[in-house]
Amino acid sequence: MTLLDHLTAEARLAPDSGISTIIDYGRERPGLIPLWAGEGDLATPDFISNAAIEGLRNGETFYTWQRGIPELRTALADYHGRHFGRDFQPDEFMVTGSGMHAIQLALQATVHAGEEAVYLSPAWPNFPAAAAIAGAKPVPVELEFSDNGWMLDPEKLAAAITPKTRALFVNSPSNPTGWTADRETLKAILDLSRRHGLWIIADEIYALFHYDGQRAPSFFDVMEAEDRVLFVNSFSKNWAMTGWRVGWLRLHPELQQTFENLIQYSNSGVPQFMQRGAAAALDQGDGFVAEQVQRAAQARDLVCRILGDTGRVRLSAPQGAFYLFFAVDGMPDARAAAFEIVDRANVGLAPGTAFGAGGDGYLRLCFHRRLDQLEEAANRLAEWISNR
Ligand SMILES: Cc1ncc(COP(=O)(O)O)c(C=O)c1O
C-alpha cells in the first residue's frame, strides 16, 4: 500500500490535463509560439489592475461579502443589461473564485454522486473531470463535424437523457470547437430541460467572442425567469484576467442564500481588492473587449487562410470563442503530432485527445494573439503540414 491508495478513488482517478502535459513538455523552448492554452497574450489592462491596487492600498484585506461586494454585483447587473437586452438585478449575481469554481458550485447544487450530467463533446475537459470527482457520471454527446462546421443533433442529446440525468452542461460558444448554438437549438435544449426537469448549466463565457457582429445567442434570449438555468461565467477571457481567478454565477434570486453557503464552505469569498478590479473591468471595459474581439476575428481569418491554403487540413472557421479545432490529413495520432509540432515547428498546440470523445485526430490552436506572431506560427505549421 502507498499513500496514494488511501486517497479516494475519485481523487486518484482524476485525469492529468492533456493540455498541461504538452505545455510542460515544451514551455522552456526558446522561440516557441505558445497557442496551446486558453488565453490571450495581453496582460490585464492598467485600468483594471490599478483599481485592485487601490483597493489593496486602502486596506481592503479583510474577509468580505461572501456573495460579492455590492458594487461588483451592481456592475454585473449593468453589464448584463447592456449586453443581453433586459433588466437584471444585483441579487441575481454571486461572485466566485473563477469560472471553474462557479462550475463546481453549480455541480454541487444540482447533481448527486451516482447521478448523471450530460455535456457536449469535444469539450473543455474540466467539466467532465469535475463531475467525476464529485462522484457523478459525465455523459458525452458528440457534436458532428462537416463542411458547415460543428453541429449538434438535438435528438442525440435527447437520447442521452436517462432517469439519472440531473444536468445538461452547455458551453456555447464552445471551447474547443467554436460551435455556437443558434436560438432554435437553445430552445430545443430548454425544452428538454423543461420536459425532464433538468438543470441547464450554461457556460457562455465566450458569448462576446462571436464573429457575426453580435454577441452569441444566449439562454437569456429564450428562457423564462423560473427555468432551471444556472449561468457560470468568468472574468478570465473578456478582460485578460485568467490569472486572477474570479468569476460569477447568475441565478434566480431565490437561490442566493444556498449559493452563498456553498461559497462560504469552499473559498469563503473573493478578496475585496480583486473585486474592485473586476468591477472596473465591467464598468470601463466594453471598449477593451470590443478591441479584443475585433483582433480575434482578424486572427481567425488569418489562421484559417494560411492553414486552409495547405489543402491538407479539415477546418471550418469557428463561429465563436477563440480556438481553431482542425484535423490534418493522414495524422492519426494527435497527441504524438502535438509533440512533433513542438519539436519541429516550435509551435505549441493542444492535442484533440485532451478534449475527450470526438477529439481524436484534431488539434486545438488558440488564435487570441498578436497577429504578427500568429502569422509566423501559422506559416511554421503550414510548412510542417506540407512536409509531412
Ligand atoms: C468553456 C470554459 N468554461 C470555463 C472556463 C473557466 O475559466 P476560469 O476558471 O479561468 O474562470 C474555461 C477556461 O478555459 C473555459 O474554456
From TrEMBL:
InterPro entries cross-referenced by the UniProt entry: Aminotransferase_I/II_large (IPR004839), AspAT/PAT-like (IPR050596), NHTrfase_class1_PyrdxlP-BS (IPR004838), PyrdxlP-dep_Trfase (IPR015424), PyrdxlP-dep_Trfase_major (IPR015421), PyrdxlP-dep_Trfase_small (IPR015422)
Span of the signal peptide: none
Catalytic activity, EC: 2.6.1.-
SUPFAM superfamilies named among the record's database cross-references: PLP-dependent transferases
PROSITE patterns reported in the protein's UniProt record: AA_TRANSFER_CLASS_1
Keywords for the protein's UniProt record, in alphabetical order: Aminotransferase, Pyridoxal phosphate, Transferase
Entry's Gene Ontology molecular function annotations: L-aspartate:2-oxoglutarate aminotransferase activity; pyridoxal phosphate binding
Reaction equation(s) it catalyzes: L-aspartate + 2-oxoglutarate = oxaloacetate + L-glutamate
Name of the featured protein: Aminotransferase
Organism: Aquibium oceanicum
